[in-house]
Amino acid sequence: MSDIKNQVQNINPNAEARDMHSLIKDTSNIYETLCIITSRARQLSVDIKHELHSKLDEFAVNSETIEEIQENKEQIEISKFYEKLPNAAIIATNEFLANGLDYRYRDAEIEE
Question: Rounded CA gap, 81 and 55, in Å?
Answer without folding.
Answer: 12
